[in-house]
Amino acid sequence: MADTPGDDRTLRGDATPLPDSHHVNVADAEAQFNELQRVLSIRSLQAASDSPTDRSSTERDAEKGEKREEGFDLRAYLTSTNEAQERAGIAHKHVGVTWENLQVEGIGGAGHKIYVRTFGQDVLSFWFTPFRMVYSALQSVVPTLRPTLPLTTILHPSSGLLKPGEMCLVLGCPGSGCTTFLKAIANERKDYARVLGDVRYAGIDAHEMAKRFKGEVVYNEEDDRHIATLTVAQTINFALSLKTPGPNGRLPGMSRKEFDEAVRNMLLNMLNITHTANTYVGDEFVRGVSGGERKRVSIAEMMATRAHVLCFDNSTRGLDASTALDFIKALRVMTDILGQTTFATLYQAGEGIYELFDKVLVLDKGRQVYFGPPSEARAYFEGLGYKSLPRQSTPDYLTGCTDPNERQFAPGRSEADVPSTPEALEQAFLQSRYAAEMRESLAKYKQKMEHDKTEQEEFRQAVIADKKRGVSKKSPYTLGFTGQVRALVIRQFQMRLQDRFQLITSFTLSTALALIIGAAYYNLQLTSQGAFTRGSVIFAGLLTCALDTFGEMPVQMLGRPILKKQTNYALYRPAAIAIANTLSDVPFSAVRILIYNLIIYFMSNLARSAGGFFTYHLFIYLGFLTMQGFFRTFGIMCTNFDSAFRLATFFIPNMIQYGGYMIPVFQMKRWLFWIYYINPLSYAWVGCMENEFMRVAFTCDGSSIVPRNPPGVNKYPDGLGPNQVCTLFGSVPGEDIVSGRNYVSFGYGLNVSDLWRRNFLVLLGFFFLFQLTQVFLIEYFPTYGGGSSVTIYAQESAESKKLNAKLQERKAGRARKSDGEVAEKTKEEGTITKFNGKPFTWEKVNYHVPVPGGVRRLLHDVYGYVKPGTMTALMGASGAGKTTCLDVLAQRKNIGVVSGTLLLDGKPLALDFARNTAYAEQMDVHEGSATVREAMRFSAYLRQPPSVSKEEKDQYVEDMIEVLELQDLADALIFSLGVEARKRLTIGVELASRPSLLFLDEPTSGLDGQSAWNLVRFLRKLADNGQAILCTIHQPSSMLIQTFDKLLLLERGGETVYFGDIGPDCYILRDYFARHGAHCPPNVNPAEFMLDAIGAGLTPRIGDRDWKDHWLDSQEYQDVLAEIEKIKQNTTRDDGQPKKLTLYATPFWHQLRWVVARNNAKLWRSPDYVFSRLFVHAFISLFVSLSFLQLGHGSRDLQYRVFGIFWSTILPAIVMGQLEPMWILSRRIFIREASSRIYSPYVFAIGQLIGEMPYSVLCAIVYWVLMVYPMGFGDGAAGVGGTFFQLLVLIFVELFGVSLGQFIGAISPSMQIAPLFNPFVILVLGTFCGVTIPYPTLESYWKWLYQLSPYTRIMSAMLSTELHGLEITCKADEFIPFNPPAGQTCQQWANEFVTGFGGYLDNPNDTTACRYCQYSVGDQFFLPLNIRYENRWRDVWILFAFAVFNFFATIVASRFLRYAKR
Fold it and tell me: What is the spatial distance between Cα 1410 and Cα 1379, in angstroms, rounded to a whole number?
């Protein structure tokens, strides 16, 4: 909550002198900064003396901050550099900002709701796509057809000015338009529909500023977005390297390096983060600096841009009171000495911070209700008729006046005679003297800017002087394009080098894949067997490597927020990052692919020569780089991952199908063969094929000789005789050696002389083409995503319509009551619902955790109690163990040893304690696609006992929605809620269980003063209705702390300092501290004072005795022990009947019903996820079928039927890639819900599978329809019934894919790790299923994998069904011709051969030119492959068993692998 009037007094005895009304002069700022230095040195000395003994010496040295003790003097540093620059004749950038009638409009009118899209709507809209495209084309031609979008005004016309060297504080409740105002001033207008009015910077208009001086006006957003694997120093160095002024903008004789170092050290010292210079910045997944330090890194990065108009959006979030004050003081000094112009919005700003500003702007619902000197703002609002509240800091007071829930009118005044609506407040301001003064000074300043252009000219000169030589004067960048690329290459290289996990996994994985491929095609011989498999190994090696780049798409999307921020800072052109990405990736990918190629090339015994290997490597690597560019282009182009996924699957199947390997180019359908010529993979594969086959020749032997001896016959010669032929492509009659050139020429239509003149050049062309597409798209059509936050609603059902109408009716009825009836209103609220709270006591609680080298005690002998109808605050210094204590009391710890006595209602905690109490955690983790009402109902249905009827539970939820004041958001989807609404929902979900006790962990963190006040006001309402509440809280304002009844105060080491009443105006608490020598001054926040008194902050503790000893000797301590005994005596006794205790409130089937219902709703509302899967299935099936349309009965058609069926093995890969991230996100929600014992892990895993089932069956049916009928399946003995059997197989394939994806999700700790398993699993299953390497040629040591692969069962079940009894009739060019010996007919010469090996002779009675067809019936194709028609049912049930095994493995993994330690 808010800081207070005394937050700078807690650092020293005297107050900061008030600045005069217009400007803080330099002398004043200097005096303040001397003080800041004193504070900093206290901090550094304290860091040195208080450092824990277990910290390493190196860390201690860094913390000690030796530089700080020499006294880093920001003022002296800046003044001296400034003077030196003046002497050197370097121009100043002084930019005053004026805004006149600035108005901002966003899309979405009043009452305009945006509804969530569903799967059904997506499927429908897909069919209307062609009509929509035609209509939008018409709209572009006929402007009258264009729809007019409803607009809403976010910021109403506002005017003002801020001169160089001034600071303006922007205040307002959430939703009042503070961020919008800052973005409009910072010239970031893309998120809004329209920005009207005139904004000028030193007289330059906004358009020219954006075009030529973009980086001089910057905006620091509230969220910290950084590259997690860079260190703090690297992050700042990068920004500096792109903003270092050219030689004309630096002091004479100062190099770029010296300049960068000086500025970096100044920033690190100023923000007190020198000790973190070599620490990773980090994020949720990468451990790095703390949240407060990360916020300071964001500030340093922005300051490194050396811009002169700075807009800070809540930049003190996550900083404690003293650090925030230090930062604003430093900002004050920089603003004064460097003449910057600074705007800032701050939540919970203390008085000391407030007094440092020159102007304050107060907004209410987008309307300007005050703009003027900070010192007069309070008096202005009091003059309007608002009551001045004791102890409330001015920023809180000002925003409070615009909040209907918080404001209070002066005695004898009411809404009737005090301007209280935004419109009335705006009118009051416009008629005040402050508005008149503002208009007058604005007119004068504008006139001055028009006549006296010196400041503007100086600014323009300074910007030009900053540019490096050779950079255009009109360019907004300091560095030229090549310089930008160089800086980015260095950064991207550091980032990849330091992301060890990514490096190790990518190298390990690619080596493992290479070893599998190499081992599968081990030591290929130069015989007929080795000819086709050589093509296979080249294709497998190329494809695995090229499709590995698919992972580039999500990476491109994840980097967007950082790209947006840095291009807004004008650090670099977006195009530079596209080129830098490719260049910085080369050193890593080149080494990785070289190792990969070495393994495959030499294990599989491809042509062993240096030229052969390096040509092969060049083509594979160039293919890899081209595909990387291809996927990156999609990553840049698409707005979200699902649309990119759809687009990619549009291309991938075609690239594989039309690579030239599955179907030779001369056999492709005439209306589709052009795909081959625009396919980069085909050129890479052809290049590798030509390179390999031009170097080898094959010996014709074994199965390639016709006719040959079947087992037990020795009629034919063993080698190639005069009356036998070789069936290899390109064989010459009578010769048993086939040259590789002929083989590829006749078999695939390839010409080896095209290797360099065509394939290499075209592939290189593709590489450059995709580089250009990246540059073009990122520069001219950037998609950053994000934008403004909009609440999204679910469509109302008949039931929810009725309920919402009732809620609104009651809300309106309450609003009609006048203030005179407050008491009645409270009484009515009290009847909403009574809670059945129970007393909770804890005695002698200790908590020990294991640490390296022993155990550490975190809590020591903590005593206390919570009674129904009371609120207890749990406070302490940072690191005192507040959250730890709450976790221990709520039984949420799963590591360490807890000892002590905890009693609920006087009885030991039973099995059902976790579900009978509620714990609202600090992180708001919810199922984002549920509505507010659904989330609360889900909790009520599963956590209230079955004895309570569904109607009662529903009514209770409606009451809770009303109590929480979420009436307007009852049907809003959770993922679109704001911070405060989500926080209230977290509490609502817990309350829905009707708990006997409510725990809350820092419910006010991340909220502004008003939201925090509203939340605590609401908790008070619950307590007054009988709820028992225990809540940790940090930085409460003086008004907030008084809302609580009791306080448990801890100091470092988990020692109790105080437990007892607080009292009105905290008088009981202040008396206790005063008795022990700590007297709280009247104008200081008691909550902050007592923390300082016990030595929690920077100041040493008051008194020479430890406060825990004061407590143990006090009468209050004895009173607590007595009260605990009394509570234990007075608790309700059992009636003697033993109660049946269960871990969960509801039975298994009840849990499953609601979990499945929630999952179904979630998937129905996730059309991108579900429809993408359906689209991909339909598309792959359709495109494969188009290539193999209406297959005939020839022997080549037989091969195509096999390929058509083999495509169905790609389905699990598609399902897994999409499903794993979804599963891991769902598990996060389950972990949170499991700690409250809402439902069991078995229910979670089963519910996830059941939810996926309908969509899996739908996908299987769509795939089957588009596969079976277009290809002409079902001509064999199995007939049409056989095609329905294929559908059953496909459904089981889907089931297998889903269950395997969920299993991999269950064993993976994070979303980054799960996808790494996929290529490995898919490659192993696909390679050893007997298709790419036929079963007879499989090495004996791989045969166990053949039996283990589920894909073996898919192929054997589908192939045998399709080919059994299918009559084969060779086409004219498919016959194998040979001549019998003189005097013999074809039948006489080849009879034994045909009988032994199958097939038929087309002309048995001829004596020359016999025509032999390899197969006469489909069975002859699959019988040698170890496939039997009679085993097809066995195979399909084995496949089903695999899916069932995965499913049970997932359930076990869900039960035991949570990856959540606390």
Answer: 6
pLDDT of 1133 = 61
d(CA 653, CA 1175): 13
Q: Which residues have a Cβ under 8 Å from the Cβ of 1440 and sit 6 or more positions away? A: 1292, 1295
pLDDT of residue 112: 67
Instruction: Please give the C-alpha separations between residue 546 and each of 542, 620, 628, in angstroms, as whole numbers.
Output: 6, 8, 8
List pLDDT tens digits, range 753-790. Answer: 999 999 999 999 999 999 999 999 998 887 765 545 67
Q: What is the C-alpha separation between 835 and 833, in angstroms, rounded?
A: 6
- Mean pLDDT throughout 570-582? 92
DSSP result, 905-965 = TTEE--TTHHHHEEEE-SS----TTSBHHHHHHHHHHHHS-TTS-HHHHHHHHHHHHHHTT
In percent, how much of the chain has pLDDT > 90? 31
Report d(CA 809, CA 803) in Å as an integer. 10
- Say if residues 939 and 992 touch (Cβ distance below 8 Å): yes
- With bands split at pLDDT 50, 70 and 90, how would you rate the model's confidence at 750? very high
Q: What percent of the chain has pLDDT over 70?
A: 90
Beta-carbon contacts of 1056 under 8 Å, excluding residues fewer than 6 positions away, are: 861, 862, 863, 864, 1048, 1049, 1050, 1108, 1111
Q: Are 927 and 1239 in contact (CB under 8 A)?
A: no
Q: How far is CA 695 from CA 111, 681, 740, 1078, in A?
A: 74, 22, 7, 92
Q: Helix axis angle, 574-603 relative to 560-568, nearest 10°?
A: 140
> Which residue, 689, 427, 648, is CA-closest to 553?
648
> 1103-1112 — which CB contacts under 8 Å span 24+ positions?
1103/1076, 1103/1077, 1103/1078, 1105/1076, 1106/1055, 1107/1051, 1107/1057, 1107/1058, 1107/1076, 1108/1051, 1108/1055, 1108/1056, 1108/1057, 1110/1057, 1110/1076, 1111/1056, 1111/1057, 1111/1058, 1111/1059
Q: Given the DSSP bridges, would you call strands 897-904 and 907-908 parallel, antiparallel or unpaired?
A: antiparallel
- Strand 697-699 relative to strand 737-739, pairing: antiparallel
- Is the pTM value of this prediction over 0.85? no
CA distances to 413, 514, 739, 1145, 1147 from 527, rounded to whole Å, are 103, 24, 11, 70, 67
Alpha helices in 714-820 (DSSP H): 740-748, 754, 761-780, 798-816
Q: What pLDDT digit, counting tens, does each position of 241-262 carry?
A: 998 888 877 888 888 888 888 8
Helix (H) or strand (E) holding 1326: helix 1314-1327
CA distances from 242 to 576, 950, 1281 (A): 12, 63, 69
* Structure token pair of residue 535: 């093509």
Closest CA to 1026 of 1068, 963, 966: 963
How far, in Å, are 892, 995, 997, 1144, 1147 from residue 913 at the CA level? 11, 10, 10, 10, 17
Give me 746's structure tokens.
């006749």
Distance in angstroms (rounded) separating the CA atoms of residues 295 and 648: 37
**How far is it, in rounded angstroms, from Cα 1289 to Cα 1301?**
18
pLDDT at 237 over 50: yes
Tell me the average pLDDT across 177-185: 91
Write b or e for each residue in 1419-1455: b if 16 or more Cβ atoms lie within 10 A of its Cβ, otherwise e: bbbbeebbbebeebeebbebbbebbeebbebbbebbe
Distance CA 1199, CA 895 (A): 60
